[in-house]
Amino acid sequence: MSSIEIFAILASLAGVILSMARKSLAWTCNIVASGMFGYVFWQNSLYSDMELQGFFLLMAVYGWWSWSQSEADWKPERASKAQISGGLLVALLFGAGSGYLHTVYFSSVSFPYLDATLTGLSMYGTWLATQRKIENWIIWVGVDIVYVGMYLSKGLWGTALLYGVFILLAIKGYLDWHKPLKNRG
Length: 185
Hints:
Layout (H helix, E strand, L loop, with lengths): L2 H18 L4 H19 L3 H23 L11 H25 L6 H19 L4 H19 L3 H28 L1
């Protein structure tokens, strides 16, 4: 495990923990982590994951802005059924298209369709988080379970462990965000 991967893991953990606490500083940690993980994934021919880090950087800037513009004690919301079904459809179509393009243009690509589909779902989960939708945590549990296996197969042991921790944190994040929803009725 490289020092860059170690620092990326620490920044990612900080980002998720701060997100669970609904602190806008989470997005700053996510910016740092995305830059470092972009390099790690490029080194390991996980091009969809590398590209995803660029999206994460942009969404982190937007998320930071969005969260800092809202009231200090904002409450999570539920996504509509149309937002859920539409988002999942777009994420899956993105995975198919991006996976295909990676097989055509990158001979060294690893797991082109799986990686691209996980990227599409990760983009959707991130968008839900910027919108304060509680379903983002459910998306992350599913995505992170699959990511653990993919990273283990690539020998990215630290990153696989991080995503295992992300599963637990996403469950806790869901429960933490659910409390204000339950209290509202």
